[in-house]
Description:
Elements: E1 11-12, E2 23-26, H1 29-33, E3 41-46, H2 65-82, E4 83-93, E5 97-98, E6 101-102, H3 105-114, H4 116-123, E7 134-142, E8 157-164, H5 182-188, E9 193-197, E10 203-207, E11 227-228, H6 237-241, E12 248-250, E13 260-262, H7 295-305, E14 311-314, H8 321-328, E15 332-337, H9 340-352, H10 357-360
Helix pairs in contact: 2-3, 3-4, 7-8, 8-9
Amino acid sequence: xxxxxxxxxxxxxxxxxxxxxxxxxxxxxxxxxxxxxxxxxxxxxxxxxxxxxxxxxxxxxxxxxxxxxxxxxxxxxxxxxxxxxxxxxxxxxxxxxxxxxxxxxxxxxxxxxxxxxxxxxxxxxxxxxxxxxxxxxxxxxxxxxxxxxxxxxxxxxxxxxxxxxxxxxxxxxxxxxxxxxxxxxxxxxxxxxxxxxxxxxxxxxxxxxxxxxxxxxxxxxxxxxxxxxxxxxxxxxxxxxxxxxxxxxxxxxxxxxxxxxxxxxxxxxxxxxxxxxxxxxxxxxxxxxxxxxxxxxxxxxxxxxxxxxxxxxxxxxxxxxxxxxxxxxxxxxxxxxxxxxxxxxxxxxxxxxxxxxxxxxxxxxxxxxxxxxxxxxxx
Length: 379
């Protein structure tokens, strides 16, 4: 394909045949995923269209929250089918306020996945098989930004739901660890209690003896939190710890060269938020797609849920963040999007590599498995 322009390489989902790894296809991912073999994908990470009832590029119309779950369930059924027993499904999604109240469709979705037969009977819809898919963990991504509303809390977070089909899911906890803060390290130097829960559910309490004991910093860092403060992890903590109490940070990217400090004055009242935090780094793709999660967020879960050479799928690829990061980390990728312009942008981004410097510096080994997926041949 030497000399061929990226735009000329945009492929549409075939009716049958073979798909290539390391490619992004234009078309409905429901049709694309149906071509893939059972238990063939290691990680599905995606952010589906919002339930905002808007028309997007390519004429795609999203659904009212009342109808969102019925639309989305067939996609989740295909995700569950193609996911390996050791695989994971990371779903980034946000809820919606309707007529001044939070619509509960996200909780309806979780209920439906866990009670699919009853849900389909109640809704009188075609049964969808979930293949044992269950919710492993729910996390919260602090975006650090929100649209102000005069009569609501500042909504800085989005949900991150981690699903899997078995307890054998890959879970590489060390790449997901956080840096210990200085207060935690000081506490470890004192003979304090250590409380934790074993995998069996047993609650354990231990004392340190004579200043020496089993409670010591893990060399790889602290356990990951259910609150994902993207961009406010390792490189931010030293800055934050040196700030005077009550300092407000005003910045998109927290680092020593790009930060504005504002000391609060008497009578100042910050806008209330759904979560109290320092802030986070976000990145937006210029041009035709604004609903983009950051490369660091994709990296966090790709490293945590897969190994080198594993296969990562994004059924709503958008402008390609999942694919860009998967390639940088030595994983195979495959994805779908209904908007050809997004697919072109995504393939260009994959060729150009990540924006984030530490991802650019990763010396990821090249994938060694076959470049072809195994597909179900249609009779």
